[in-house]
Amino acid sequence: MGEWWTTVPVGTSMGNYEISSISHVTMSPSRQNNLVSMQSSLPLSLRSSYNGISAFCTEDTIPQCISYINQELDSLGLSSTCIEASSLEGADLKAVPALNAMYELMQIHRRNMCTLEELEKEQLKKSSTLDHMQMNNSRLKDQLELSIREKSGLHETERQLHLKIKTLQSCLKTEKDEVQKLQNIIASRASQYSHDAKRKEREAAKLKERLGQLLVDRKDRKLAIDVLNCLGRSDGKRSHWKTTKATASHEGEMYTSLLKDYEVSQRSLMLENAELKKVLQQMKEEMIHILSPRRPTRGANAVASQEQADSDGEEKAGDFSRETLDQSCEHAREQLTNSIRQQWRKLRNHMEKLDSQASQVQNQLESNKEVIPRETHEDEMERMRHEVQQCKEFIHAQQQLLQQQLNTSFDDETAALLNDCYTLEEKERLKEEWRLFEEQKRNFERERMNFTEAAIRLGREKKAFEEDRASWLKNQFLNMTPFSDHRRCSSSDGQSALSIKSEPEMRMSSTKARLVTSSTHATFSTPKPTQSATVPSTTELYRTLRLIPDSSSSRHSNRGRWQESSSIEDGDIRVKSRNRVRCGDLSIFSLGLPGSGRPSTVLHAERLAGPSAHRCVLQHQPFQATEGLLLLVKPLHSLAFILMLQGKVDLNTAPHAKPLYCHGISRV
Amino acid sequence: MNFSEVFKQSNQLCKVSPDGKYLATCVQYRLVVRDVSTLQILQLYTCLDQISHMDWSSDSLFILCAMYKRGLVQVWSLEQPDWHCKIDEGSIGLVSSRWSPDGRHILNTTEFHLRVTVWSLCTKAVSYIKYPKACQKGIDFSRDGCYMALAERRDCKDYVSVFVCDDWHLLRHFETETQDLAGLEWSPNGCVLAVWDSCLEYKVLLYSLDGRLLSTYSAYEWSLGVKSVTWSPSSQFLAIGSYDEKVRILNHITWKKIAQFEHIATINNTKAVVYKEVEKRPAVGSDDLSLHNITIGTTLFNTQSKYEICPPPVQVPVVKPDPDRANPKIGVSTLAFSSDSRYLATKNDNMASVVWVWDMQKMSLLAVLEQTSAVRCFQWDPRRPRLALCTGNTKLYLWSPAGCVSVQVPTEGGFQVQSLNWHCCGETLILLGKDQLCLCDDEKIGGNTPLQILNFTC
Predict the structure, then answer these.
(1) Between these two residues, B120 and A596, which has the higher pLDDT value?
(2) Contacts of A652 (CB under 8 A, 6+ apart)
(3) 3-state secondary structure chain B
């Protein structure tokens, strides 16, 4: 309210306007009439008062003012509060009514202000919506304009297209015309061409005719055949006259040849037909065969009866067709095709059924795939458990029975008897073992003897070798010295013979010795005291040869080998083999290879007449002597090789060869 | 493989007698008859002029030598060297001369196809057949030598005359439904006559011996049509090669198409074996390239070649024909059945370096032979399913179901094989060069020549 009053002095006209406007607004329509009347009455005085002085009320005009205010209040509907002067002429007012009136006025004023605010707000809102609307409107207007423009553009293109269509149509028309024209031209040309061609051809024909005529007329001199003498016909016949008979025969021949051809083709067709029929028949039979055995299996099925009827009918048809197959085609064909069709249908149905069944089964399988194994597994487990249980029970029962037997029926007598039995058995076994042991011992003894002999021979050979070496060295020395070639040759010759100095005598003795067999062996095998100095001890030899048995088992195996060899060659030969063999002209040796132990792997070494000619045979295959023997002996002491070539192959003198490679050297 | 020495020949005139014993060759105006086995000269005849055509009579007793320029035909007897025969066609001219099947008549076609003159060597009689048509194959004798079919043109219409060769009696004369008959051919059994129209129209007509029309076949219209027609030796199939690069096989019962062989540039068929000839030049050091080497040896330029098997797909070289030219180089021009009717060899003109071999039992492509140069000639062995071909270089190529091999002709001076002929026994091949010939004795092919070694293809 204070504001109000302060604004009043600033601009009265403004305030006036505002007051009026406010009064306008705040006044209810019912009061408007009053107000209008009041205003019409009021302005004069009010204006005059405003114009005159600034104050509304003066000391003098209190009552008028009061009345005026009262009127105003009345017009405002505040008739209950009437401002009265406390005194008739006094300047004081009764305070209560004045205050009431003021309060009322203030209330009215506040209410008016509130409404004013609300109205302002509303106005703002309205104006904003108005703006929005306007904007919307303008946008829509733009859109409209745009679409209108578009529409016009489309219209334009449409028009153009129409134009184009029109031109194209006209073009097409012209083209069509052109095509038509061209076609016409082509047709006319073609006709003209054909016509011309025909004309030309006719002309040509005419020319040809004419030419022919001319040539015939001219009686071309040159046209001639010049044959030395006429030939006979190629078929040897004479030529025929041209007669009607001949022509008839030609016709006949032609027809026969045609007929023949047709017959041939018919025959081939018939053959083919028969073949096809056979195939068909077979197919039918197979079909029937396939379809019929199903019957009993699905006798329970609902379809069975129908199927049976079907197959019956089909069988009948099959029989029928079989009969009719041999009939003429005309009649048979229909039935045949019908029956085939029927069967085919049935087969197809059957196949479909099978298919569906198969798929069902598969589905079932797929669904049961995991269940079934588990069940079976469990079943199996159960069964096995049961079996185990049974077995356990069985064992238990047996044990019990045994216990019972032992406990009840065991007395001293039987025990002694049993004991006796056992000892007897043991004794027997021991005896057997003892015998075996004895045998082994014997064998071992024999072996030892052999080795002793071998050692003696080795010693002897060693000696010989030493001698040999000495002679060789001597030779070498002599060769190195500037002597004549001849000398060297002779010496080398002597060397190649690999001679032991005493060879001739020995050979001589061997011829004698050969007559003596095992008895001489003993004399030869006994170690000579003169040689014993060079002979190593048997154990030493064994050790060097790694033949000392580590255990009885190895000895056993060794013995086994000996046994094996002895089984191959009888003792006599072995004795011979151990014998020193020397022969002058011819000496044949056979060496059983220990590894194979078979008589087939016998190496025959043959020394022929002459010192250097040798032949050896391994498994019946001749080798070059030196090579073959070298092959055999190479890893051994070279002495063995030398001796063998010399014809003095002796296991006693070549002890290395004996146990390792040559099981027995025998003279054949 | 043994190659004989090289002999001279001219005009590629070289023929083995039908009995297979003699080899006749023409050298300029001389006719030389040799023994096939020894190649010794048996007879030497001298003609009046350069020989342009030579042919054996069916009984191998006579040889016909035609000199077209002079309109002359000379006949020589092998048994009686003194015997001679000269036929002069006079001023009317001569364009073609041939034996009749009995070997006692000579059929001469005069210039302009005015007439066919039939000369009898038995009676000296002469008879004329008028209006023969000038076409691709206007005369055909049946295989048994009984009948002759002759294409005629009278009054702008095509006719076929069937003559009995025995006495030249006209047996049948009928008009054919052709625009412009191009050729006719008897079936090997002599009962069906195939007649085909010119390339402007695809039309094949089949006539019975008595002139009845058995069937008409047309694969398409408005395009270039038949290019070649061949009967299978069994008379079972009729193969028709056409400008659309296809071969159509008709059967002998319904005369309908039973198979169609397409010559497609990209071979995707996995069952067919594609042999590709690969040339391999022998490595020559730079020092070897002296002038001396070049001058003495064609061997330097002789390249080794071998076949390689290409896995499908294989792209075959194609030459696009000139559409403005007449007789465009496109379509199947050559067809040949093997002697057992089991295989069919074809050549498509726009794939000139390729020979196609089709299996007639499976009706499918069996083998494709891609050569390095255009195939000049191919021919089946008359005894075995074996195909020999040449491409105008120094090599001979052989195909059999077992494999494929290329053989260098080991002759001096670069013998270029232009054409080849099988001897009727199927053991010997006659290779014709430009003016040379060479016999190739391949008896060992059945044994252990590379053909067997190349067995890996199966």
Answers:
(1) B120
(2) A453, A454, A456, A457, A460, A524, A525, A578, A580
(3) CEEEEEEECCCCCEEECCCCCEEEEEECCEEEEEECCCCCEEEEEECCCCCCEEEECCCCCEEEEEECCCCEEEEEECCCCCCEEEEECHHHCCCEEEECCCCCEEEEECHHHCEEEEEECCCCCEEEEECECCCCECEEECCCCCEEEEEEEECCEEEEEEEECCCCEEEEEEECCCCCEEEEEECCCCCEEEEEECCCCCCEEEEECCCCEEEEECCCCCCCCEEEEEECCCCCEEEEEECCCEEEEEECCCCCEEEEEECCCEECCCCCEEEEEEEECCCCCHHHCCHHHHHHCCCCCCCEEEEEEECCCEECCCCCCCCCCCCCCCCEEEEEECCCCCEEEEEEHHHCCEEEEEECCCCEEEEEEECCCCCCEEEECCCCCCEEEECCCCEEEEEECCEEEEEECCCCCCCCCCEEEECCCCCEEEEECCCEEEEEECHHHHCCCHHHHHHHHC
Comparing CB atoms, the residue among A211, A224, A254 nearest residue B209 is: A254
Task: Report which DSSP code applies to A551.
Answer: S
- pLDDT tens-digit profile of B11-50? 899 999 999 999 999 998 999 999 998 889 999 999 999 9
Tokens encoding B118: 């039939």
Distance separating alpha carbons of residues B153 and B133, to the nearest angstrom:
5
Q: Is the pLDDT of residue A668 over 60?
A: no
Both tokens of residue A195?
């016509």
Extended beta strands in A433-480, E state = none
- Which residue of chain B has the CA closest to A209? B114
Closest CA to A559 of A432, A443, A668: A443
Report the residue from A202, A232, A265 with minimal CB separation from B156: A202
Residue contact B85–A226, C-beta within 8 A: yes
Map residue A226 onto helix, strand or coil.
strand
Measure the CA–CA gap between A223 and A213, rounded to whole angstroms.
14
Determine the residue among A191, A227, A229, A249 to mutate to test chain B binding: the one whose Cβ has the most chain B Cβ atoms within 10 Å. A227
A654 vs A647: CA distance, rounded Å: 12
State the number of CA atoms in the 13 A half-sphere of A134 facing the CB.
6
C-alpha–C-alpha distance, residues B362 and B25, integer Å: 41
The pair of structure tokens assigned to B158 is 């095509």
A664 DSSP 8-state letter: -
Complex ipTM: 0.78
Alpha carbons within 13 angstroms on the beta-carbon side of residue B69 total 6
- Measured distance CA(B342)–CA(B386) in Å, rounded: 11
pTM: 0.56
Q: Which residue of B has its CA nearest to A229?
A: B83
pLDDT at A230: 77
Comparing CB atoms, the residue among A202, A223, A226 nearest residue B89 is: A223
CA distance A347 to chain B (A): 29
Q: B379: Cβ–Cβ under 8 A, 6 or more apart, which residues?
A: B336, B387, B388, B389, B420, B421, B422
| Residue B53 near residue B440, CB atoms below 8 Å | no
Per-residue pLDDT band at A350 (split at 50, 70, 90)? confident
By C-alpha distance, the chain A residue nearest B105 is A233
